[in-house]
Design a protein that fits this description.
This protein is α+β, with helices and mostly antiparallel strands. The protein contains 4 helices and 16 strands. It is globular, with a radius of gyration of 16 Å.
Length: 205
């Protein structure tokens, strides 16, 4: 693995996943993707699936996420695999939960806030599709097969023995439109506490 970019709260690592492993994930998830068209409020267009906890094909992704973040696997959500085709994108957003979101309470119960994100590029052979951070001097990170982008969504601290959170508003980002080809990613959202998915996957081992 090679660290190619680092800021206070964002890192980019190359040569994290092998091309053969990425192809294995893509092949395993292809059929699930076809029937799960995702379109959210006209700002997120893609095909998405989640890796079956019983398959264990994302163990490498989980191991690397732990190696890079040092956050226990019990805090991880299930692995999301997403394909973006020509013209598809994910417009500017934050990964942490908003209090005015109607699903906030339900989402928060499953492990609290999403404090960090690890985004793995399974296939970066496309034009466009950069991960864009407007508050980082308009940083555009090109999709590259085997690359991992990790960042903090929330800063955690303790004040007088009580946990305190600070939203990292600069973590606002977008998946820019794919101009040609396809972009495949695998995403690990990491919670502040053990998540419900821990009981579905790791607790069984």
């Amino acid at each position: 693995m090679e660290l190619v970019f680092q800021s206070q709260w964002l890192q980019v690592w190359d040569n994290v996943l092998s091309k053969s492993y990425c192809e294995k994930i893509k092949k395993a998830q292809l059929n699930q993707l076809e029937n799960q068209q995702l379109r959210t409020k006209d700002y997120r267009t893609s095909n998405q699936s989640f890796i079956d906890a019983e398959l264990n094909i994302d163990d490498r992704i989980n191991d690397i996420t732990f190696e890079l973040t040092k956050i226990p696997k019990a805090h991880y959500e299930e692995t999301s695999v997403i394909r973006y085709e020509k013209g598809q994108e994910y417009k500017i957003h934050h990964d942490y939960f908003h209090h005015d979101d109607p699903d906030f309470e339900g989402s928060f119960r499953n492990g609290g806030h999403r404090i960090a994100t690890a985004l793995f590029i399974l296939d970066g052979k496309c034009k466009g599709g950069e991960t864009y951070f407007p508050h980082m001097n308009h940083l555009r990170i090109k999709p590259k097969t085997g690359r991992c982008i990790i960042w903090q969504n929330i800063f955690m601290s303790e004040v007088f023995g009580r946990p305190r959170i600070q939203y990292n508003t600069e973590s606002e980002h977008a998946g820019l439109p794919v101009e040609s080809g396809e972009k495949w990613i695998a995403t690990k959202w990491i919670r502040e506490a053990p998540s419900v998915w821990y009981h579905n996957k790791y607790k069984k081992k």
